[in-house]
Structure formats: structure tokens, C-alpha cells
Amino acid sequence: LDLPALVEACSAADAVVLYDLDATKSLLALRLPAEVIVAWRFFGYELYARDVSSYLSASSLKFRQAGPVSLLALGGKRRVRQLLAWVKLRTDPESVFRSAMRRADLFLGLSVTEYDHLRQRWEGLPPFLQLPLGTSLSNHVAASKSDLVIIGNNRSIYNNHLDVLDLIEKTRHSGNLGFLIPFSYGPRDSYTDEVRRRVQSSGQKISLLEDFMPREAYFDLVTKARAHVTNSYRQLGMGNILEFLNAGVKIYMNSRNVMHDWLLTLGTKVFTLEEFAADLQANNLELCPEDREQNRKVLSGFATRFSEERFFHDFRSGMKSRNRASVSRGRSGMLS
To answer: Angle of helix 238-246 relative to helix 258-266, nearest 10 degrees?
Structure first.
């Protein structure tokens, strides 16, 4: 990647949107002229990976503490390449990231509830701007549901799969149910080896989905599920969760996950892991028609309220407000 050429190209823009704030984009943000608006499209790992222990269950933490899993599991080969680049540059990546975070003018996020949560842990976040939702949702709505429960989002240790596997094994439930764990991407390490071992030895109808599927085929499969169970303590796979909600899939989330609170605040019908245990035993893992319709109406209303048109209007307003503030402060030069 030719960073100087990228800086030159972006310097001619009025605004630059950075999709996540990795090492390269942090350097890019700091090298842009002060008059260029920098919008940080928050991905998640940029902050959550800096406080890993707060978002892993006790079962998951055993494998993070075991050794090399932490580096590869939380960032993969890309993270390793970035760290090697920092060594070559003799630059402190943490100070560069913090400076880039302060340099950003807008924080593009999915949930103001999550943003407020993050602000309590990390000072210096730029002002929040709500991302639009409508264009990301498809029309996958199965006429009937299969005896399938989806567990987690990918191979990442942040899914805390092991606790869900424990719950399933300890809870009496219908033998017709099948459980599917999306496992086609993410790091491979001692944690994923343990998930695989547990699945193979469980005696339950649990399988790993390890092959990549075309998007349409994947959503045709998973939106026919009765329920989706995620034990993540942080925002993870929200694109999938919103698709599931829109398709009438019953969602169970860990109550520690701030996105659970956000979805309840919106008015959607979502449930906790404790409720999953009770519903699993009672064979009550499917949303009633009224709750399905309510979830679709809530998401539709949210998408209408925070449309693309409003996003671009608010983005331009944010640019104008930042420019006025810059003039009043006499801001000039690049941040470092």
C-alpha cells in the first residue's frame, strides 16, 4: 500500500470516511490536512480488542490466557502483519491510534446506546452520527420455520460458544432440534479446537458450518431457523442479527451485551440466555406471529426514521458544524 499516494488523493477531498481505524487508516487520518473531515465508520474490534477480558466469559478466558491464542484470535494474520509493520516503523501503535481517534470528526455507528457505553470506557470519541439501516435488510422471510437453532456468528472467541454448549447439554429438550454454529471464518486456535472437540463429543445434533456459502443461500438457510443464540458480551454480527429479526427468527442474547438493551429500547422482542434455557426445555423457541410482525414494524420504522437521506443531511450538517468550530478555534495543521 502506497500511503503517501493515498494521503495525496484523500487530501483533495472535503471528507474521508475510514471503514474501521486500523494501523494504516490511523496513519492516514493523522497525515491528512486539518480542513479534511475524517469520519470513522466504527467496526468494533478497534476498541473492544483493547479491553478483551471484559468481553469474554470465564470459559473463554481460559483459552485466551493459555498463550498464543490472544494475538491470532483477536486480530488474525492481518493483525500480525500490522504489528510487524509497527516494529519496522519504530512507532507506538497505541499512541498513533489514540491520536487518530482524537483526529476523527465523526463517529459513524449503529447504536447510540453502544456509543454511550464506549464513551464511559474511552475518552475522546468524536461526535456520534447514526448510520442508516434500511438498505442493509433483505426480504428473507421464511413461510415456516425449521427445527434449527443458530449459535453465534463466526469462529471468534468473542462468541463465547462454550457456555451455550454447556447450557444445551444440561437442558432437557426436544430431540428434533438441530443446532448449527457458523464456523466458516475467523481465526483457528486452541479455542476453536476446543469448540470443535465439544461439538464432536456432545452427543447432540450440533454441527459446524465451515464452508463459505453465497450470501443469498446462507440467508435462505439461517432465516428458516427458529432461533438465533448469541453469547457475545459485545456488539458482534449485528448485520446478521438484524436480518434474523426482520425474518422472524427469535433472538436470544446475553444481557451483558449493550446491543440487547438497544434492541429492547427500540421496541423489538428479544430475549436473554436465561430465557433460552427455559424456552429450550419448554420447546418454545419460535416467535409468535404478533412478535414477528412487531419486530418487522420496529425495524421498518427505524429504517424510515434514519434513512440514507437523513444520514447524508446529518453528515453535511456535521461537516458544517465542525468547520464552524474549527474557524472559531483557529484550528490549523495536522494532529499528531
So the answer is: 30
Q: For 210-265, what is each residue's pLDDT tens digit?
A: 999 998 898 888 889 999 999 999 999 999 999 999 999 999 999 999 999 999 99
Contact indicator for 235, 111 with CB cutoff of 8 Å: yes
Distance CA 319, CA 160 (A): 40
HSE-up of residue 95 (Cα within 13 Å, Cβ side): 6
Tell me how far apart the 2 most distant CA atoms of the chain are, in Å: 69
The DSSP-derived string for 34-75 is TTSEEEEE--SHHHHTTSGGGGS-HHHHHHHTTSTHHHHHHH
pTM over 0.85: yes
Query: DSSP class of residue 264?
Result: H
List the 37-41 sheet strands across, edge first. Answer: 15-19, 37-41, 106-109, 128-130
Can you give the length of the chain in residues?
A: 336
Question: SS3 helix, strand, coil % of the chain, rounded to 5?
Answer: 50, 10, 35
Q: Which residues of 99-131 are buried (b: 16+ CB within 10 A; e: fewer)?
A: bbbebbbbbbbbbebbbebbeeeeeebbebbbe
Rounded Cα–Cα distance for residues 129 and 126 (Å): 9
Q: 256-313 pLDDT, tens per residue?
A: 999 999 999 999 999 999 999 999 999 999 999 999 999 999 999 999 999 999 999 9
Look at residue 250 and give its three-state secondary structure.
Answer: strand
